[in-house]
Amino acid sequence: MNAINLPDYAQTLGAQAKQASVLMAKAPAAIKNKALRRLAELLRTNVAALQIDNARDIDRAVAAGLAAPMVDRLKLTPKVIETCAQGCEQLAAMADVIGEIIGMKEQPSGIRVGQMRVPIGVFGMIFESRPNVTIEAASLSIKSGNACILRGGSEAIDSNKALARLVQQALAESGLPEHGVQLVQVTDRELVGQLITMPQFVDVIIPRGGKGLIERISRDAKVPVIKHLDGNCHTYVDDPCDIALAVKVADNAKTNKYSPCNATESLLVARGVAAEFLPQIARIYAAKGVEMRCCPEALTLLQSDQAAVQNEAVKLVPALEADWSEEYLAPIISIKIVAGVQEAIAHINRYSSHHTDAILTRDHVHAQQFLREVDSSSVMVNTSTRFADGFEYGLGAEIGISTDKFHARGPVGIEGLTSLKYVVLGQGEVRT
């Protein structure tokens, strides 16, 4: 497809998606659920074949010198594929919100006014790295009655093509239009420029990737954008807290997996518990090879604790101002001692990417203050930031995690891919 005419190709994709969106929007719930269950079956029966295609992407990435966390994001392991299949089944088991009418109220005139949930129409999604996003986006598109055009990163092109073939097979076998989900088959970046400037075909663009991608889309798009920015997530260890719980959760939030956007990148610790908590978590991080970039107070505390730094491989370094805003996606964490909950909230609201932030505390008042005042799409109490995920939230899957405040915020599931229109029911009333 090297000699392809990109503007013509984009127009074809758009026209096909627009036509398919009409059929997707009126598809009965039973048909959409059938397609989702069939997709789950196809994923499970094609694990070996998918891994062959995925291996080509991984080999290219390694040869190109792609960073280890980014290579990790590319992997379609049996566990990842099974999670995708379960996500499809979870969506199929959920109630269909399309056509749901909410807030119906009778007015003084006698008319009744409410709102109906309807599909957006066509969404374009531009994403990098993780090929499982192809299935998450496709399955949510099916359940929400939308058509979609997916443009994955060039580093995952073989994996994405293989997954998209299964999606289209499931659609066709279930009586839905194959063009309900389309994958862009070329890696030329110019196609992205075409996709984001077609308001006649595309109703919303959802970019999911690095800052450069998001900034470009936000600047150049001629259609609405739901942004999914980076995840500089914080865990704040409060005074008072359950130290054992705090150590367990802070460990999981950072080291469960380094590459996702919901991994904790910055650890804030109340001064009152720092001397007890920090050496314990530092030993765990040190054993796992996590570099700790510390404020002066935390650095002094940890360097004076021989048990915490007895291993010569321990990486304790002074934090720079830039560290407080950094999304590492790597075994690195910034650590800062704060006076208490008020300073923690102020620090998070200044440096956070407004993705996910957690407080570990025994104080109910502090917990409620944190929930109210931290300006992020997910705010948590006494649990790991790693739970900020559509599957874990019971959404079946997610299109991404929006750090916008409009139109959707946090993990974007079915409802985030719908709109509301007013419906008015009358019995012959006329306005006077």
Polypeptide structure, described:
By secondary structure, the chain is an alpha/beta fold. It is 42% helix and 19% strand. A seven-stranded parallel beta sheet has the order 10-9-11-8-7-12-13. The chain has a four-stranded parallel beta sheet with strand order 5-4-3-6, with helices on both faces. A three-stranded antiparallel beta sheet has the order 1-2-16, with no helix packed on it. Helix 2 packs antiparallel against helix 5, helix 3 runs antiparallel to helix 7 and helix 6 runs parallel beside helix 7. The longest helix is centred in the N-terminal third of the chain and has 20 residues. The protein is globular and about 75 Å long. The termini are far apart. The relative contact order is 0.14.
Topology overview:
Elements: H1 6-25, H2 29-45, H3 47-63, H4 68-74, H5 78-93, E1 101-106, E2 112-119, E3 122-127, H6 132-143, E4 147-151, H7 157-173, E5 181-183, H8 190-195, E6 204-208, H9 211-220, E7 233-237, H10 243-255, E8 264-270, H11 271-287, E9 291-294, H12 296-303, E10 316-318, E11 332-338, H13 341-351, E12 356-360, H14 364-373, E13 378-381, E14 401-402, E15 410-411, E16 418-425
Parallel strand pairs: 3-4, 3-6, 4-5, 7-8, 7-12, 8-11, 9-10, 9-11, 12-13
Antiparallel strand pairs: 1-2, 2-16, 14-15
Short description:
This protein is 42% helix and 19% strand. It is an alpha/beta fold and 432 residues long. It has a seven-stranded parallel sheet. A four-stranded parallel sheet has the order 5-4-3-6, with helices on both faces.
